[in-house]
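Here's what a typical entry looks like (Tetratricopeptide repeat protein):
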Amino acid sequence: MSDTTILICTGFHRSATSVTAQWLARLGLNMGHWMLGASPSNRDGHYEDNSLVMLQNQALAAQGTSWRFHDEVPLYPLQAVNMISRYSASRDQFSPEGWCVKDPRCTLFLPAWNNVLESRARYLFVLRHWSESIQSLYKRHAEALVFDHSSGLKEAHLQFWRKPTLALEMWIAYNRRLLDFFKKHPDQTLLISQRSIFSGLKLPEILNKRWNMSFDFAESPVKPHLLADIVDNNILSMCTTELVEKADKLWEELMAITDYKNNDESARWSNNENKICQLRNVSEILDTYIPTVIPIDLKAHLDWLETQAGPLNLLPVIQWLRSDAEYRFGLWEKLARLALKHSNWSVAIEALKHIVIVGNPAPNIFKLLADAYLGHGEYDMAIKLYEKAISKNKKNFIFYVSLSHLYMSLGRHEKAEMLLKKSTKYFDRIPGLLFNAIIDALWQQGKYNEAKDLLAARKDEGSILKLSLYEIEEGNESGVERLRKWRSRRLEFNSFESFKCQIESSGLSKSSSINLVKRVQDIYAELF
């Protein structure tokens, strides 16, 4: 194992971890070799390694949760040790001089990171008051609902209004883990507040002083005028008194140990006098508990397992299938997909290999088996199986994209580009997912002009959005105007009244519906 220092930059979502990571990148730290691009809610880029984001999402899925984790299930971070160990070994190979990762999900796996990296790791935690963080989350997901409504309101975004306390519960779950980790490893951690970053914090000097690093000066990417720290009292209609008290107490504990903060780190409410009136009763928010009954039919049992959060013990199902359904390959595939969903790679491999050996597998089975070997860390086998799937069906663009993603995660950007470009001859019009993968491969290699030319020529709304974000990322002002026009066009598809009707008929509670309607109204008001 290398003894170079590794920096883990993390904190809750919407807490200025991205701009902090952007600064670290300017200081010369290697942030990864497959960077997540910009988005409408994060125009300067996320500075997250796509490979790590996907791996930590898989680790969360294996335990029946997601990045929206809010202590709804037990979380066992040390189950991710093998995954983090493989990832770290890959990063050491590509960046022996040291490297950095930024991902809010790291917060949920801090014990695993420390188990793997031990004394090599340094942890930079960025903290933001709960009210500002969750207001930013509501804003981001309201905008996603407004601008990406081609197939109606997206359930993933609506979750923040279906379960009104979700955002605050998430903030508590993440930040409680930061606090607990600090108490055990104070010498390895540095805590800074978001407000201190926007108030002129000299990050390079601080890192040099704290951990004897040797960073030279790099211009700060922080744009103080973008700080949104005035909080609309309306978010309190999504909270309970009990949760607010818990969050306030946790914030006080965090501020007591924070190394760099402003004199005033309290919430800045738009109307303090009405704050208490906005809080909701717990009884209005609690979900109804529905007891479950475990079915005894094999197919019904698999259907039931799909509704369970996990982690799941799927080995008995393998035995059940062997004895009662050896040739019912649909059930074997159903089990494999369930195992993949929960990152149970061994069960998925066993189920899919059974189909390959005993049955007459469709090309997609080889793709699923490749996914399973990829999750298991057997990259060469995964590549062979993706290639096998492609050889059996050259017109399935998902196969090419999946293999290109593996190449990208291994830093083989040119190979990914070649694979994707060769595949285009099988399609009259390049499918959007395949086209975006080509653009990503070009961008990761610094072939910016070629990528922008392809985007400009395609002219669909998705390409225009991506082009505008790339231009903004480069500091090109034309990208800002292009994005403004794109947003205006998207709003023309749906009037505010039409969108309001969709919200009111979506089954939200009255207060959640009012909250979302107000946010959507603010978005329309910004552009018209």
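Residues 166-184 form the longest helix (19 residues).

More examples are in the samples folder.
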